[in-house]
Structures are given as C-alpha cells and as structure tokens.
C-alpha cells in the first residue's frame, strides 16, 4: 500500500505515520516528491490496515500498489528520479554520459581515456576492474590495482567512477573506490549481491540480464531499493534473440516502457547492445532521441589492442563526434546535458 500524505503534512505527521506503518508489521519507505510525501508500506496486507492508516494525521489517501514492484513503481512516485554522483546527473530531464574502456588495462590507458571523456563532455568514467568473462581463460581484470588506477583518473579529471562489483565479498572494497557500483547483466538476479549493494551509500547501475523480462529487471531493482538505497539506475544493454547480426538485440522501446512504469532513470548501453563499434554512434543517438536518461559507452585509445570488447569500442575521435551529435539531439528533445 501507499500512504499519500496531504500537501502540507508536517515532518512530525510523516514520522508518526512511519511508526504506525511499522507498528502494523509493514516496512515503511518514505519517498519525498516535489508535490507531496508518500510512505510505501511494504508487506502483507491484512484486514482493516487500510482503514486504520487512513485515519492517521495528515493522511490524504491510502491506496494499494498494483505493480509487482513497489518502491520502483510510478504509482508510489509519479515524478522521475535523478541519480547523481559528482557531476554525473542522470534522470529527471538530465542526460548523463558515462564512457571509458571495457576493462582497466594500464595507467596510461585509463588516464588517457578519462581525459578523452572529460574533453568530450562526459561526466562518468567507466572501466571494469573485476571482469565477468565468458571464458575463465580470458583477461579477468586488474582487480584492486585497477580500482586504484580509476581513483587516480578521477583525481585528475573529477569524473565519477563507475565500475562493476561481481561478488558480495567485494562490495566494501569496490565501494571504497567507486562513485557508482555497476551490477552486471550476469548478476542481475544475484539477489544476495543486490541486497549487499542496497546497503551501501553508492548509486547502483543495474544492467538488464540478457534474458530478463522488464518485470524481472524492476523486481531486481526493488531488492536494492527495499534495502534502503534509493539511487538505482536501470541499464538496457541488449537481450538475446534469434538475431545474430548484432551481439545482442538492443530494444529501445525499453526507454519509453520504463519511463511509464518507473521513476528510476534509464541508461542505454549501445556498446554491448550492438557489439559493433560502427553501430554505436547511431544507436546512442537513437537512445537520446527516445529520451534515455543516460548512456554508457565503451571507448579505448586503440580499440584493436583492447584486452576486452575492442570490437565494440569507439576510439576517442569517434566518441567526441558522437557526443557532438548527442548534444544536438538532447537539445531537440529537451534533455539538459
Ligand atoms: C561491461 O559493462 O563491460 C559488461 C560486462 O557489461 P554487461 O554486464 O552488460 O555484459
Ligand atoms: Mn565490455
């Protein structure tokens, strides 16, 4: 259920209702909107609960939440949410661009990438230090050494560092260096990991599993939100279909669909979504035209020599050119960069 407070409800009234919700054995989540405050009351609904809450001070209405996901739902928070880390702002009318190599490979590689991202107007630096690779024989990432290099790149450029955390036991380590924690597609339904990132004070970029439905993605986000971390971004990175001309199939309708169902920002990954560098600029542009809140793009100083995903990485010039196009489209659809 959601307890919708009256427009002028006081902090005391909200706190009182939080206690009432908890007293009924439900878990309260307070969501502060621009118009009014609502309290999502999560748990099993029983007889009389609605009536009991309705009589509370400062309460305007008590309504059921129809969607299977609750805190992520637009029913609970009609206005879009913005997630921010340093100068990276994603959502609620702001378009944020995250770019960088698939994997951190060396100091020279990550620092030069960070400079290119900054120069082109990006606000987030991506780079995997813990890499989920299909084969155990492929490069697995530089681990903590890579995290240190990301931190050095942030030191120089001020970019927000976005990097993947693969396991519960690494959450504190990665959160010690990262501004945004990425949960990769392969881990979208690793529920213990979702709970773990729900308990740290870092925004989370949650990537869609290649065979996950929209409801499964939203329910995965709900695990993080339910632990008390409100800063979740959903990332469409392509799904597996019968089609083989691209690495994955990138459904851009995800943007409009999620904007209808959730207040959480939507980030598009045209790199993994296509698997071919030549397709990335146009798909990035199309995503912005469809009002994506963010983009995450793989770039590399020398894509041919990349240790992972070079075939889908832009070089610095291609990235700068893509950013010029994106800026014009963002302007046309009313997104601020
Ligand atoms: C990545 O971002 O490099 C990555 C491994 O992404 P995904 O989890 O979407 O495959
Ligand atoms: Mn990659």
Describe the 3D structure:
This protein has helices spanning 11-23, 49-54, 107-120, 144-157, 171-175, 191-198, 214-226, 253-261, 270-274, 280-289, 316-333; strands spanning 2-5, 27-32, 37-42, 59-63, 83-85, 88-90, 96-100, 124-126, 160-164, 180-183, 204-207, 232-236, 266-268, 294-298. The protein is an alpha/beta fold and 337 residues long. The chain has two domains: 2-63, Phospho-2-dehydro-3-deoxyheptonate aldolase, domain 1 (Alpha-Beta Plaits); 83-333, TIM Barrel (Alpha-Beta Barrel), CATH 3.20.20. Strands 7-8-9-10-11-12-13-14 form an eight-stranded parallel barrel, surrounded by six helices. Strand 2 and strand 3 form a beta hairpin. Helix 3 packs parallel to helix 4 (144-157) and helix 10 (280-289) packs parallel to helix 11. The two termini are 36 Å apart. The protein binds phosphoenolpyruvate and manganese (II) ion. Manganese (II) ion binds at residues 102, 272, 298, 308-309.
